[in-house]
Amino acid sequence: MNISPIGFAVIGTGMIAEVHAQAIKETPEARLVAVWTRSAENRNAFAAKFGCRSAESLESLIADPEIRAVTIATPSGAHADVAVPFLEAGKAVLCEKPLEVSLDAVDRIVAAAERGGGTLAGVFQMRLQRAAQTVKQAVETGRFGRLVSCSAYIKWWRSDEYYSSSSWKGSYKLDGGGALINQGIHAVDLLQWIAGLPEEVSAFAAKLSHTMIEAEDTVAATLRYAHGGLGVIEAATSAWPGDDVRIEIVGDRGSATLINDRLVRWVFADPQPEDESIRAELSQGTLKVGSGDPRGMSWDGHRVLVGDLSRALLEGRPPMIPGGEARRAVQLVLAIYESARTGRTVRL
Questions:
Q1: Which residues belong to any copy of the GFO/IDH/MocA-like oxidoreductase domain (predicted)?
Q2: Does some domain include residue 1?
Q3: What CATH number corresponds to the domain at position 76?
């Protein structure tokens, strides 16, 4: 039985929108139908490049039965304006990280999906790595014993030109902040997915290299988890030349370290027969995270998420990362910002 691919539209025409378009075109269950952005010149050029239709309005896409799903690649603070009407119309939305820049806006998006029957999926492709999934499973089965220290490090570099190339990067209104909510949020999500959402955070934030931006380029936060363990999150776009993402999960019976998609440490007080093969198979990786230049980022994770959303629609099931799951990383980031702003410990 032949099943027609899911018709997608891309909202936005920037660098991430191009990643979305490429991912859709590489997914057998999906088909790129249209693109929309306010600038007719930009959307026409994008449509010509990727072989799709240039839509004249959001309303035309909402009314088009050929469009069953959209990917949102606009500035973060404009996600709700696009996501809500599509979800209310029963369309599916794959929303780039973060879902939005405030919990009120995130909740508007989630509520629109519930109200209209649309499917909402988040973009947190670091969860797809086999190494990360192996660590999460080990946490859930108790191999680490009591978790004592669970931390994330995202020490990246962005040039002054990166920030000056747009009117919204590093702004509170449309970017939601700086290094943490934009570049760091993937690792923030992965950490809380593996170790759980912290109960308390205390943080400092500063502009140390890019003084022209409104928000921070450097953050350091301490965490206290419900299980009693502690941890830190360090995020920066001020750390030249940019380093790999590092996640450390440490318990009183074992330790693991992820660097990008590589499992570089996997040791336990009670070894298991499969540990040697896990170390051998997962110590190598191919993930490109764009630590020094966003153009170095891989689009393969987006392809997997587009495929998952397409199959979810065809099979009538939820996507791998539903909207409620994608909310948690925003909640943690905003708690860290509140602590840095007020100088107080913040409970989540």
A1: 133-256
A2: no
A3: 3.40.50.720
Neighbours of 8 (CB within 10 A): 29
pLDDT of the chain, 348 residues: tens digit per residue: 467 999 999 999 999 999 999 999 999 999 999 999 999 999 999 999 999 999 999 999 999 999 999 999 999 999 999 999 999 999 999 999 999 999 999 999 999 999 999 999 999 999 999 999 999 999 999 999 999 999 999 999 999 999 999 899 999 999 999 999 999 999 999 999 999 999 999 999 999 999 999 999 999 999 999 999 999 999 999 999 999 999 999 999 999 999 999 999 999 999 999 999 999 999 987 766 666 566 666 778 999 999 999 999 999 999 999 999 999 999 999 999 999 999 999 999
Phi, psi torsion values for 134, nearest 5 degrees: -65, -40
* Helices and strands of the chain, counted as H and E runs: 11, 14
Bridge partners, residue 153, by sequence: 234, 246
Torsion of CA 171, 177, 179, 180, to 10 degrees: -170
What is the residue range of 187's domain?
Answer: 126-296+330-347
